[in-house]
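ok so for the tutorial part 2 we go from a plain amino acid sequence to predicted structure tokens. step 1 is just haveing the sequence, like this:
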Amino acid sequence: MSRSVLVTGANGFVGRAVCRALSRKGWKVHAVVYGGTTGAASGNVVESECDLFDREAVKGLLDRTGPSHLLHLAWYAEHGKFWRSLENFRWVEASLALVRAFQASGGKRVVSAGTCAEYDWRYGYCTESVTPTEPALPYGVCKNSLRRMLESFSEETGLSNAWGRIFFLYGPDEAPKRLIPSVINALLRDRPAECSHGNQVRDFLHVEDIASAFAALLESEVAGPVNIASGEPVTLKALIHEIGSMLGKSHLIRLGALPAHEGDPPLLVADVSRLRQEVGWSPEISLEEGLKATVEWWKHTL
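step 2 — the prediction. this is what the tokens look like for a chain of 302 residues:
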């Protein structure tokens, strides 16, 4: 019997990669798209257009597809706006309704995408069972609130539930205004790459590895929050200069030309013990390899 999963946000940056990863692993993927495509439609990946705020449409989709698993990635993610947007609150409502409908239809396991923004960033090094979840902005508040509700709902219903907290992601076809593509695109055009001071320490993971990690988490029986990250700290200025070196244009990098974002923590790195030891997953793409592939992708795109 083939395994069947409903993937929401399937035409998003992570969703497209997830659909490819699950298809390679033999899953029957019902890819939920809205105003786009996964680019991965095949015998294993079937796309369905659905407005997740329309509860009747969601019920109809679940009735037609009958998935045993749900991988919920959909959320409001417009660059620069999602942190404080009131859309976050709407997504809590829609997500809870989706999971309730999934459980009522006979679904067995749900894995949702969380965020490192759920943590109290004053701690820097984030461990699922230790670091307090005290998010400062609506995006993190809403994600963390949904996680708590889904955990309680799962306890009452017996639904298997896990929560993958994504840290910092990158890779081909990322939104152009985000840090890595913005630096690459500026340098490819022989323009100055204006950045903040770059002393911030972060934890980056290639989108294909993020997709692979979510597939492994979905297939496991691990419950609760799991950090989806590399566990490897890197300063932003080291990452930016690596890109500059790859393109031979380090002289165009302008560190300190832009102010750091308000509330930007100096350190934000994941403890990946649960991901490595309980889920049994480790990254396959090094930061250097991933950056090279991303740079090459943008070279052929511009």
